[in-house]
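Budget justification aside, the reviewers requested a transparent look at the raw inputs and outputs of the sequence design task funded under Objective 1. We therefore reproduce one unedited record. The lines immediately below are the structure tokens for a 184-residue chain.
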């Protein structure tokens, strides 16, 4: 692995839920990849999503973020709110959604509607859900802590879908109203 210099780089790291990945550039983390089943599949997904990235040894700030994400996924409360992200390529509305989501503490949840109200109105709930579905930095931007009406899990676009979301919420100690149905 080469030492990270300029441009986009990534690293794979082990967590309690599997091999995750992190992508960073000069101005912060630009992506986090949840496990894709195997380390090689996670690596391939990062390369598909991020284009020209090279695997490298992370700088100190990224190593710290990796350590804290790993601890969070073991159940240690850690909000990651001070991890520096580079979301310059993300639409402004989505950044607003992510800013609110980043303020949800581990073990707590909000609904799409609650975030929508903070951004201007309940009618934005679907837009909030779509923004969270495009979240480039899951875990750091804890989209898993955002639920549908009635504190039901709602969707989750990561590999494993709602099962992965519920697993992360369980690790964090959150209470979710989940009754399995034919549609889960």
């Amino acid at each position: 692995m080469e030492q990270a210099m300029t441009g986009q780089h990534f690293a794979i790291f082990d967590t309690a839920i599997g091999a995750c990945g992190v992508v960073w550039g000069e101005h912060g983390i630009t992506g986090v990849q949840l496990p894709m089943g195997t380390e090689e599949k996670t690596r391939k997904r990062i390369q598909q999503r991020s284009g020209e990235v090279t695997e490298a040894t992370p700088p100190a700030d990224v190593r710290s973020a990796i350590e804290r994400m790993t601890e969070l996924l073991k159940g240690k409360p850690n909000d990651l709110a001070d991890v520096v992200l580079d979301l310059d390529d993300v639409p402004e509305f989505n950044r607003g959604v992510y800013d609110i989501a980043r303020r949800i503490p581990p073990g707590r949840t909000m609904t799409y509607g609650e975030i929508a109200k903070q951004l201007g109105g309940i009618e934005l709930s679907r837009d909030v859900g779509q923004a969270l579905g495009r979240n480039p930095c899951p875990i750091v931007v804890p989209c898993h802590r955002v639920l549908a009406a009635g504190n039901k899990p709602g969707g989750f676009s990561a590999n494993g879908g709602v099962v992965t979301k519920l697993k992360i919420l369980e690790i964090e100690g959150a209470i979710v109203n989940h009754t399995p149905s034919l549609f889960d």
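The chain has six helices and seven strands. Residues 10 and 23 are 4 Å apart (CA to CA). Computational costs for records of this kind are itemized in the attached budget.
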